[in-house]
TrEMBL record:
<feature type="active site" description="Proton acceptor">
    <location>
        <position position="154"/>
    </location>
</feature>
<feature type="short sequence motif" description="GXSXG">
    <location>
        <begin position="40"/>
        <end position="44"/>
    </location>
</feature>
<dbReference type="InterPro" id="IPR050301">
    <property type="entry name" value="NTE"/>
</dbReference>
<feature type="short sequence motif" description="GXGXXG">
    <location>
        <begin position="13"/>
        <end position="18"/>
    </location>
</feature>
<dbReference type="GO" id="GO:0016787">
    <property type="term" value="F:hydrolase activity"/>
</dbReference>
<dbReference type="InterPro" id="IPR002641">
    <property type="entry name" value="PNPLA_dom"/>
</dbReference>
<dbReference type="GO" id="GO:0016042">
    <property type="term" value="P:lipid catabolic process"/>
</dbReference>
<dbReference type="InterPro" id="IPR016035">
    <property type="entry name" value="Acyl_Trfase/lysoPLipase"/>
</dbReference>
<feature type="short sequence motif" description="DGA/G">
    <location>
        <begin position="154"/>
        <end position="156"/>
    </location>
</feature>
<feature type="active site" description="Nucleophile">
    <location>
        <position position="42"/>
    </location>
</feature>
<keyword id="KW-0443">Lipid metabolism</keyword>
<feature type="domain" description="PNPLA">
    <location>
        <begin position="9"/>
        <end position="167"/>
    </location>
</feature>
<keyword id="KW-0442">Lipid degradation</keyword>
<dbReference type="Pfam" id="PF01734">
    <property type="entry name" value="Patatin"/>
</dbReference>
<protein>
    <submittedName>
        <fullName>NTE family protein</fullName>
    </submittedName>
</protein>
<keyword id="KW-0378">Hydrolase</keyword>
Length: 266
């Protein structure tokens, strides 16, 4: 591998399960692997933005743990959602004060779904915070986010692993999915059935793009955690870290990339 190979990493959505991305990034960094570009949907967009801003993965975990996300939400007087995300803008500004893609230390692309045009839109320049909010706007729960007279919902609806912005730009693409679904022999109620069906749909969306990745990291069993199960944040982080550490050790080509990147820094 040449010394100037560009590494891209695509981070899936998955609610609080996206905290596992931070564990994966920690493991990659410890082995000397640092992405040159990042793309993400939903939780992957949030994790990717904070990491691209320059925060350490463990520092981002602490930010998440100490932030009472729900106190920033307000009821929506609307037929399109039960909560408004608009009040989250001030919270994001605390940690992303420059509020622009250009201010990030690593180029970032986030995916969102244009609900009226029924298409994926990729944001990578200009204002940063509203595209992140759009990318993580869960349908039915949050009012759509308006940007330039278009209305957006969660990027994971149509593209939960946005590798396309990295294709042809990066030499090596690492995909990370935080929604691995274990075999379930006993679905106990309709809630479990609906949740499992949604995750199956999300994962079909992800797996259809798996072949575009040179490496695909998927911590096992994360779908057992709820989308808002913040009390399990440290456990989820550790699952990502352990899965990525094992993956790196078991994949000689990725370990070789590690060596090349380390040599490039010397």
């Amino acid at each position: 591998m040449s010394l100037d190979r560009k590494i891209g990493i695509a981070l899936s959505g998955g609610g609080v399960r996206g905290i596992s991305h931070l564990g994966v990034l920690k493991a990659l960094n410890q082995y000397g692997i640092y992405p040159n570009r990042i793309s993400g949907s939903s939780a992957g967009a949030i994790a990717g933005a904070l990491y691209a801003r320059g925060y350490d993965p463990e520092e981002i975990l602490e930010i998440i743990l100490k932030t009472n996300y729900f106190k920033f939400l307000r009821p929506a007087i609307s037929w399109t959602g039960i909560l408004k995300m608009e009040t989250l803008e001030e919270l994001f500004k605390k940690y992303l004060p420059e509020n622009s893609f250009e201010s990030l230390k690593i180029p970032l692309t986030v995916a969102a779904t244009d609900i009226k045009r029924a298409k994926v839109v990729y944001f990578s320049e200009g204002e940063l915070i509203r595209p992140i909010m759009a990318s993580s706007c869960i349908p039915g729960m949050f009012d759509p986010i308006a940007i330039d007279k278009h209305y957006y919902l969660d990027g994971g609806i149509l593209n939960n692993l946005p590798v396309e912005p990295l294709d042809g730009v990066c030499d090596v693409v690492i995909g990370v999915n935080c929604n691995h679904l274990p075999v379930e022999h006993n679905i106990k109620n309709i809630k479990g059935l609906i949740e499992r069906s949604i995750i199956m749909s999300m994962n079909y969306n992800v797996y259809s793009r798996k072949d575009k990745c040179d490496f695909f990291i998927e911590p096992k069993g994360l779908a057992k955690f709820g989308v808002f199960d913040i009390k399990k944040a440290r456990e989820i982080f550790q699952s990502g870290y352990e899965a990525a550490s094992t993956f790196i050790i078991e994949n000689p080509e990725l370990k070789e990339l590690t060596i090349k990147k380390q040599k490039q820094k010397v």
